[in-house]
C-alpha cells in the first residue's frame, strides 16, 4: 500500500492559516462589542508574553512556520489589546 506523502510544512501552514483566521474573526467580533466588559486585559498580556516566548523558541529551532505564525499571533494580541483598551475608556 502506497503512503500519501504530505509535507509537514503544508500541514503547519494550513493549521497556521486556520488559527489566524479564527483569531482575526475574534478581534472583529470584539471590536463590535460596545464596551468589551467580558474581555480580560490578562488575556492579551498572556498571549503577548506566550507569543514572544514561542517566537524565540521557534527561532532557536529554525522553524519558520512557527516563527511566522507566532509573529502574526503577537500582532493579533497587540491589536486586540488596543481595541479593548479603547472600548473600556
TrEMBL record:
Keywords in alphabetical order: Membrane, Transmembrane, Transmembrane helix
Protein name (record): PQ-loop repeat-containing protein
Phylogenetic lineage: Bacteria, Pseudomonadati, Pseudomonadota, Gammaproteobacteria, Lysobacterales
Transmembrane segment boundaries: 6-23, 43-60, 66-85
Source superkingdom: Bacteria
